[in-house]
Amino acid sequence: MMINVIITIAEKYIHQLHGITSLLKKEGLQVSTVYEFGVIAGQVEQSELETLKRHEEVFSIAEEKIPRAL
Amino acid sequence: MKPPILGTHIFSDRLTTGSFSTFVTEQKANESRIQPKYTGRYFLVSKNQVADLNAQRKLFESSLGFKIATSSDFKEMINEADLGNADMLIYEELGIALVDAIDEEKMAMVESVEAGAILIPEKVVYVPDDLTYRVNIPATWGIQKTGVYKSAFSGKNVKVAILDTGLDLHHPDFTTRKVVSQSFVPNESVHDLNGHGTHCVGTACGDKNMAGERYGVAHEADIYVGKVLANKGSGAQSWVMNGMLWAASNGCKVVSMSLGSPVNPGETPDIAYERTAANVFAKGCIPVAAAGNDSNRSNGAVMPIGSPADGGFVLAVAALASNLSVANFSNQAVNPKTTMGIAAPGVDIHSSWPMPKRYRTLSGTSMATPHVAGILALLWEQFPNSTPAAICHRMRNLAQPLPLLPEDVGAGLAQAP
Lengths: 70, 417
Fold this sequence. Notes:
heterodimer, A: alpha+beta, 2 helices, globular, B: alpha/beta
């Protein structure tokens, strides 16, 4: 099942952001938006999450929040 | 005919003379005496033909000794003052008669004279509450308590972004305003079919309602509407991030977000939101977000500030009631690394709503947030060359301290410069 994810890149690797993005794409990440400050929004198969988390450049992967009107 | 028994309308401003609980107690005790539902008179309504009542006129006169008047006795208009001592007024065209206050025995006789007719008590008609409530009030309570109504500033030349469900682009209160808009919701236009966004835009940047009552803060600001929540009232985190970046890139000095996701106790702030907020802050734009409505304080449940309000570089806003107590639903800065920024009016807030309703009164930290966003716009107008950090510092210094926990209300009640 595909899930929406928000990936943050560790600060010391932000200068390699585009290279890391390409790497994650090869591992099944469908990229929606790459933010210059080290954040990637995209979709991935839930089963591939652990694979993406193994990269030391990846600081965190979280399922995308669903904000609502308060 | 005897005059009707009428009630006395109690105006809402009577609330200011005593406590609300006293008012409610008095109101309930005196309700039937002060505001009766019926006048004591009756309408006799014929179930049959319109002409029936007039045909029974002689019977009413002979059996009951009634003195009868009919609508045809009046040339231009029916005026009760001209009824004299008539006991019954027959509206010939309607098949209805107004009957004077009579005892039960006579009521039974009236019904027996006109078989099939029914007696209905005449209602007392009152001025509607919401009409009197809005007369001669210069501004909503939120605009008054924040000192906005007496501020020399209006947000002129300051760009304010409101990220929400959009705006009713045809709302008469905004047709003369400069509005720039962008939808980040796939397949939905900026036009607000939910209402929440229109309400928040109204509080942040609206002006006056049809009765001349001021309900908006920065009434001369340039309005930037970013639709990041779908019409059903929810969205995706990346839409919010995209909206924040759009606002900052377009020179907005404030981005107001009456939205969020619940956060669990102990949870740390979302790093992606934090980086986004840091980015827009560095571009000169202050992100403001609702603390969230997950608490139920009356039952002892206090929940942590939601996301994105819990992150650094975001000014979290708590909601206050008009007596300046914390709103029952307002969240608290209980999680590590989180702080409540400030508090603002968030209970019973009157603002704009999609047409045809035009206005609506709502409660939530969503309603408090645009008060703060608007006040920040006033500060930016006052200090156009300042920095986000300095403007936030000024806002905290201006705030009215409250005898409440800083985790609940931050620096206190936001005040306009």
